[in-house]
Amino acid sequence: MFDFKIMIAISKFVRTNIVQQRSIVVNKCGSSFGIENCDSVLGARYHGYTTGIKNYCSDIPCKKFMDVKCKIALITGGASGIGLAIADSLLAAGLQKAYLAGRNSHRGVNALLYMNNKFGEGRCDFIPLDVTNNKQFEDAFKYIICREGSMDILVNNAGMLNDKSWESEFDTNVKGVISGTLLANKYMPTQKNKGGVVVNVTSILGYDTNPYAPGYNCTKHAVVGLTRSFGEPSKFFSNKVRHIAIGPGVTGTALLHESASKMLTDEWGKKLLASLYSLPYQSTEPVGRGTIYTIEYGPPGSLWVIEDSMLLRILPPKRITYQYKVKDL
C-alpha cells in the first residue's frame, strides 16, 4: 500500500535540499527566476506532492496567440476525467509543468504519480484545492507564481452535476469559475510572463437547454456569459489575459454516469440520461486535444464545442437578428 507519510517526507526533503538551497533556478526552457520559501504560501494544508481533431478554419482567423510549450498551467478538477485529459494533452504538447488541483487528495496523488511516470518527474504537481474557498484559490496562484515565475494557463474545469444540491452546484460551477477568473485578471497581467489565458469549461448545455437538469443548465449558461463578458477584445488588449470557453459534448466521465441519481426527481434523472445517451459519445482524449487548439488559436471571448471527437466553434448571432416586433406599447 502506498505510504503517504513517506511520500510527503521525501518531497519535503527534495524541496529543502535541492530546490530551496539554490537562489536561482533556470528551467529547461531557459528562463530563470528567484526561489523563495513558496511552501509557506499554502501553509500546512499543502503537503508538496512532487514526485486527432478536425480544424474548421475557412472562415475563422487562425492567428496563434500562444504556444503551450514551456508554459505553466493550473487545471482545477484536474485529478480525473476531462481535467486530467487536458493536463495529459498539454504535457504531451510540451507544457513545462501542469498543476492539478482538486478536493480529493487520494485521487490527486494517484493522478500525480501516473502523470510523472508518463512524462517524467517534476512535470506535474498536485495542489489540494476547493474552488469555493477563495483563500485556497488565491494561495494556489501565489504558490505557483512563486515557484515558477508565472502561471500562463488557467483551466477552470472543476464542476458538479447535482441539482439535488443546487446551492453547492452554483458555488462550484459559477462562483468557483468567477473566483478563478478574477484571480487570473489580478495576477497574470503583472507576472513575469505578462498575460495568459483562462479556459472556462462549460458544456453543450451551456449553449442548449435540457428540461431535466435546470440547475446545471443554468450554471453552464452563466459560464458562457462570464466568458463573453471578460473576453471582450478591448480587455485583452489592456491586460493580455484571454478568456475562452469550451463546451464538451457527452463525454465518458463519472460526472455523466453518476448524474441520474442527482437530479431533482428520479424520473428526471432517467430522462436526463436517456437524452444525453442519445447524443454522440466521446472519450476524454479528444477534449484534451481540442483544448490545446483553443488555447493556442482561440480569439478573446471565443466559444467552442468539442463533440463527437470534433472541434467546433460557436458564433453567437446578434440579438437583433433573432428578435421580432410583437406590438407598439
TrEMBL record:
Signal peptide: none annotated. Transmembrane segments: none annotated. InterPro entries: NAD(P)-bd_dom_sf, Sc_DH/Rdtase_CS, SDR_fam. GO terms for cellular component: cytoplasm. It comes from the Eukaryota. Keywords: Oxidoreductase. Pfam families: adh_short (PF00106). Gene3D superfamilies: NAD(P)-binding Rossmann-like Domain (3.40.50.720). One of its GO terms (molecular function) is oxidoreductase activity, acting on the CH-OH group of donors, NAD or NADP as acceptor. Belongs to the short-chain dehydrogenases/reductases (SDR) family. This is Uncharacterized protein. It comes from Nezara viridula.
